[in-house]
Amino acid sequence: MWTTKTFLTKTKRGNILKIVREHYLRDDLLCGSAACNVCPHKDDEYVLDPKPESICALFDYPHYLVLDTNVVLHQIDVLEEDALTNVIILQTVLEEVKHQNTAIFQRILDVIGNKKRKFYSFVNEHHKDTYVERNPGEKQNDRNDRAIRKAASWYETHLSINNVKGQHPKIVLITDDEKNRKMAQEEGITCCSVKDYVENVNGFVGLVDKLSKNVIPESCSKDALYPAHLTPAEIHSGIRNGKLHQGTFHASRDNFLEGTATVNGYEKSILLQGHIGINRAVDGDLVAIEVFPEEEWRKPSDIVLEDKADDPGDLLEEESVLLNAVKPADNKNEITPTGKVVGIIRRKWRQYCGILLPSKFPGATRHLFTPAEKRIPRVRIETRQSDMLASQRILVALDSWPRNSRYPLGHFVRALGPIGDKDAENEVILLEHDVPHARFSEAVLACLPPNDWTIPPEEIKKRVDLRSICICSVDPPGCTDIDDALHARPTATAGVYEVGVHIADVTHFVRPATALDKEAASRSTTVYLVDKRIDMVPDLLSSNLCSLRGGEERLAFSCVWEIDENANILSTKFHKSVIKSAAAMTYEEAQIAIDDSSRNDEIARSLRTLNKLAKKLKKKRLDNGALLLASPEIRFQVDSETHEPLEVQAKKIMDTNSMVEEFMLLANVSVAQRLAEDFPQCALLRRHPSPPPANFEHFLLAARQQGFEIDVSTNKSFSKSLDEAVIPGRPYFNILLRIMATRCMMQAVYFSSGNHTQEEYYHYGLACPIYTHFTSPIRRYADVLVHRLLAASIGADVTHAELLDVRYAAALCDNLNYRHRQAQYAGRASVALNTHILFKYRVEIESAVVLAVKRNALQVLIPKYGLEGPLYLPSDMFTYNEENHMQICGDVTLKTFDELTVRLSLDSTNLQHRKLVFQLVKPFVPGFSYVPEEQKEKKPEQMEVDKEQENLKKRKDTAQSKGSKKKSKKK
User: Fold this and answer.
1) Which family does it belong to (predicted)?
2) Average per-residue pLDDT for the chain
């Protein structure tokens, strides 16, 4: 049996197009119930129990649940619990959920796929007895509600056939829509709200805590604290006529009453200040903004402001602290367009990690949740498990933010583990930065070759055989996911070398559109924490079959040049290859081989050639205007048994680091040029926009205070100015200057060539007109896509439709950029966590440098550890010179780049936000600076710290001793 579906759609020219499609209906679709005496089920096709046991006090008889769309969308956390079973999910509901929220759609599919849960997906839209036509003038939502009621009614009748009256399971429709419930009751369908059903469930403690809170309509103005948001129609009209602007809200990390949004038409971000200006926007939300007249524009505040530790209730505190700190600026360059949020276009809420604040009232069920991410506001939740959860890291989801609530409302999702537990804290880092880290699914693992896979002879015949060439890899210590290897050898022509970069051929194993490919695309990047790695592809590939390990045959994608002794590129060729790395070396081992004049073996000669050419390539890049920037990178020495940090030190940079970097850059540029030629509309490239002049204002002022005029008009003049800014006797000053210059930069991003002009391809930091990522396909999905394009370009593999789809490429680039950014943040958070662990029983006095001067604090950096944080200054002692960004107390003046001595310790009083505390030691300010302990009588708590420090030193010495023994055994 079939019927027709008619759709009316508008073309780009405004014409109305009528589309008629055939819609087939069947009478042989199974109901999935073991209580059914009609459908011809096979034994493995029964999903629903014949007599399900009721766990709800409202219904003392066996029943199945039928859910409407909003229940799935808003109560997915309840549905994922084991409590509810024997549930019917209709096709109507699944299609609506898929259309509205793909993440929740995948979560409900996972529940349906779990056989223990007994969730049955019924194809009601194709069953002749449950399909309903949309009536003339009927809204789609009303039609879908009617389809859900029709299916519920059909199940009730269907299960009663050939069953003794009252012996078959009943149907209970779960919906929070009052209108839908009323109509269902009129049609004889038993129905119930989610809240009523869950609150009467027996035997599942904590299930009620997972209920999503109902949204209070914007029109409700009772006790309103915030202005009402505009309706979608008002927002759309305002944006269309130019009165409103659309942008993504970014909350400040330093000031909870401040945020920004980037909108089209304004060079600077729009500044949003105060509770009313932000108007319930949460970091990441897409918002509608009204920009104030130019005379009301301000400059961002210089104050560091955190939300108070106690619960202020549903009141907004006076914002005078913030507004007094934000006076109109004399310098027009400092003024920023200012506005306010007038509506929410799309929420980007997720689940957030954090802790419960203790309630002032014993037995209270309403509690305040403090997120780990400082940019997220606190959340009100209800729970009856507060005593148990008080010592736990927990996960909470946001539900709504009514106008009459100071904070958004949410619900408890699950506990992650005890506060301070290493595994729980790592889980927080991964969840907070939205890092996919679940185990690889069976579908993904099914795409892998067997563990004992070897290269088939027929595959070798298709490739260039380079196994006889002396190729080696150079990587950090402990690296197991080796992406790249190099070789250099003289050619028959005097003064000309053949140089090759060989990259793991991941695309041989990760084929397009497979479960493995989709998972790698979703993850987009490998994430490196201090003590663990979250792989983009399974370990069999990342650490074994794709890793270019020494002495093992591997598939590679090679970029080979002929280069003269002045580092000029004479020719370039690309090919799939088979290699056998002669050695997998660390940077230090490679450096020793280069420096050891007694070594003249093939590996040492190759490395020396590479190093010589790399220096010339680097000089050319720098002469061309490439920037040499810096970041305070550190490396932890970790206990092999407890995985706790024992020591931290700045990373050592050697010539071999630069050697590898130069050839990776060269390979990436060469590949980018080839892709742009062959795929001008869909090449995946990477660009680095030039920073706007406003980004340099504080940096230039700080450099000027040290006697240097930095020319930032072009990247070439900028690079030259940085090279010349040297202070004799302060070797770290130039590095510090480059660290600060890095923070003025824009973010480099992936893009599809068809979406930008050729001028926009430019990479500012590298000073090159075109660039991409080719050299790390084990840990970056962008490189996988580049490999596929390059393989199609040279005829080594076939192309596929998605590679050439410009829209698909743009969406993919958005995800690549997001995941890359989140991976960076997760890595930094892991460093911060391990730093806190390291300083738990440790206090040190170290040299520091001022990075920035704020109204109430100095941002300082400890060069020895690469640690950074605020040193708060009391306003009654220090005077802030706003024009010159200085803090003055008597004859002590503190400005950017000044050297200090600080005391470093850990403050654990706030369990959620443990933080390093920086206390001024020198210059000495009476009544404020810390007096070293040796000048005082030691207190008992200091003796405990000393004891712990001594224990740490012993553990570190033991670990070093074990390490040296292992090295001697290897030798």
Assistant:
1) Belongs to the RNR ribonuclease family.
2) 88
